[in-house]
């Protein structure tokens, strides 16, 4: 069977890449044009950025949506241009479905590496997915024999060298890049249609299963967030000014109190908005009445 050419004279338009780029641009505009009262970091979290406390709270979709969220214009521009450049060849080589699967799983893989190795933080950008695409393209270059071309080989060294240097810049989530690269490498091997690679693909699937188990264990071991880690100002505002009455929300207060070693003598419930609405006396009365059910 004939292999697809690495460079086609009439390449198909990378529609999948265009769609992903469009979503990234729309979210970028939402972050900067929305009326949400907060800084850019808080807005990014609102629109799907990776934020470990929220991921641990059950918002696992942030492992993927982080790739669509960008705050800085240069970051968005660089990622969109890289995405389209890679998509022009890879959507044809791997097919749009496999291409998107590699992109999204690599983004999630990069986020899992972050969750497994870092205590707390906010991350944005499609870089993890892009590193995954580069890894998958690297698999194709070796499988097709294109690496034997000196020009292709020199360009490959240049691209890999530049992206390696990027990881030493301040503020770069290099663990997300590493996780995305490994995930894309696995995806590229599994997406390759070659009967001679059956054994390699089986071994790759086994290695991927082990990697997922190890990441899961590391995420569980690293689930606690140290008290000295900086939380978003919105979290601090909620803790200081917007606590609900006892029993409101989804927290099982009775179960928490039951496991405390000493009796609870007081519960603080500051909520400035309710104090202004009901008056301080009425708000205090409601706090007491709600706490009596559990104390």
How would you describe the overall organization of this protein?
The protein is mainly alpha-helical. The chain has 14 helices and 2 strands, in the order ααβααααβαααααααα. The chain has a two-stranded antiparallel sheet with strand order 1-2. Helix 6 crosses helix 7 and helix 6 packs antiparallel against helix 9 (174-191). The protein is elongated. The model is unreliable at 1-10 (pLDDT under 50).
Secondary structure tally, helices: 14
Largest sheet: 2 strands, antiparallel
Give the N-to-C terminal Cα separation: 75 Å
Radius of gyration: 24 Å
Average pLDDT, rounded to a whole number, is: 83
The multimeric state of the shown protein is single chain
Helix content: 55-70%
* Number of separate strands: 2
- Order of strands across the main sheet: 1-2
- Name the structural class: mainly alpha
Low-confidence blocks of residues: 1-10
Taken from the alpha-carbon principal axes, the silhouette is: elongated
Written as H for each helix and E for each strand, in order along the chain, the element string is HHEHHHHEHHHHHHHH
Strand content: under 5%
Q: Short summary of the structure?
A:
The chain has helices at residues 15-33, 40-46, 52-56, 62-65, 73-94, 96-117, 127-144, 150-166, 174-191, 198-221, 233-241, 253-258, 272-278, 280-292; strands spanning 50-51, 122-123. It has 295 residues and is mainly alpha-helical.
